Amino acid sequence: VIDIRKLYGNTGRFTFDPGFTSTAACESKITYIDGDQGVLLHRGYPIEQLAEQSSFLEVAYLLLNGELPNQKEHDEFRYLITRHTMVHEQLATFYRGFRRDAHPMAIMCGVVGALSAFYHDSTDIHDPQQRTIACHRLIAKMPTIAAMAYKYSVGQPFLYPDNSLSYTGNFLRMTFGVPAEPYVINPVVEDALDKIFILHADHEQNASTSTVRLAGSSGANPFACIAAGIACLWGPAHGGANEAALEMLREIGRPERIPEFVARAKNKDDPFRLMGFGHRVYKNYDPRAKVLGEAATKVLDTLGISDPVLDTARELERVALSDDYFIEKKLYPNVDFYSGIILSAIGFPTSMFTALFALARTTGWIAQWTEMMEDKEQKIGRPRQLYTGHGPRDYVPLAQRG
Ligand code: ACO
């Protein structure tokens, strides 16, 4: 490899850090993670306390505004969010352009990006008031958009939001309710899904959040930025892992087959990985996985579901955590390991899992985007590269090339 920069007399220094394993690209006051200790704080509050005691809307307010809301602030925020839950009627036509078997994430990328074509009064990124409206619109409309993607896939009519319900209750009704029939919300299901939303709300500079910030750094409007985040989240190494984890657990099928899959995960020549295991930052138990492991048992017990997948998951966790390979590489269950089991028990098809992640993560994305837009020192994100291609050479006309 030649160092072409030297040829041009360039002696400036830069850091070569593939995958940004140790490079901070921004300052942030939103989320703190200590991967070695398994700590996750939002604005200083431990995730376990938020998951146990607060609601998703409270956490959304906290991420956006820096403090937990008092009662008045909470009620005002709830009012603002519920005011924006409907989507433009013409968006229903947009959905009809997709194939019925389209992946919900494909629909979400398109529909969320298209919001900028409908809400021109919240795309001026230099106007703080318009930025705030965009934040509220995105948080409010994501459940409607995700529920419509589901309804479209099963061929049922879209349901308008019911703003008398909680954020999560309304989403459950729009997804599983049918017109002219009352939909009874199971409080254990509502609580578990709300917890899942809280646990997925933000996770500092992960791939999709960095994508949102990078897109936003060029001055793109917030709807376009969130659409970029959704695209990045879709991958199986990121948000797509919950779908992949449940599929893997189903493929394993029963605890006796675990050694075979663990052996495959350890085999360097086999691309197979234990989905829902390992994390770029957590080199200890992901605190979110702990909360969800407990919630999974509660939901399945309440719904009277005896799913062998949960036994398989528990046994896989036990085997992996006592295996030298996983101990040495510090691979622990991550947030995706148990979430799929809960979502499946509630009735969501696996194809919806990542869409639900996108719904929840929108609050983190938009809070991070807002923080960046408020930073007067903010620059366009522009990573450098280590060039390893040809040195300079002369052009050869087409006729003379062999
Ligand atoms: N199963 C088996 N081996 C694994 C796993 C796994 N799930 N994860 C990592 N490893 C091994 C790698 O093969 C590698 O081994 P090596 O050092 O011998 O080459 C080593 O552990 C380090 O792995 P990297 O891929 O380099 O670690 P990185 O930090 O880049 O990746 C990631 C983290 C992508 C999450 C990885 O652990 C993975 O692919 N896990 C499965 C997918 C998953 O669950 N993703 C969800 C992440 S959480 C989220 O996005 C919400």
From TrEMBL:
Keyword terms: Membrane, Transferase, Transmembrane, Transmembrane helix, Tricarboxylic acid cycle
GO BP field? tricarboxylic acid cycle
Pathway, per Swiss-Prot/TrEMBL? Carbohydrate metabolism; tricarboxylic acid cycle; isocitrate from oxaloacetate: step 1/2
Q: Which Gene3D superfamilies match?
A: 2.20.28.60, Citrate Synthase, domain 1, Cytochrome P450-Terp, domain 2
UniProt key word Isomerase: no
One GO MF term: citrate synthase activity
Family label? Belongs to the citrate synthase family.
Membrane-spanning ranges: 337-359
Name the source's superkingdom: Bacteria
Record: active site? H279, D336
Q: Which CDD domains match?
A: EcCS_like (cd06114)
Q: Which GO terms describe its cellular component?
A: cytoplasm
Q: What reaction does this catalyse? A: oxaloacetate + acetyl-CoA + H2O = citrate + CoA + H(+)
User: How is this protein named in the record?
Assistant: Citrate synthase
Organism in which the protein naturally occurs: Sandarakinorhabdus cyanobacteriorum
Q: Does the keyword Oxidoreductase apply?
A: no
InterPro entries in the record: Citrate_synth-like_lrg_a-sub, Citrate_synth-like_sm_a-sub, Citrate_synthase, Citrate_synthase_AS, Citrate_synthase_bac-typ, Citrate_synthase_sf, Citrate_synthase_typ-I
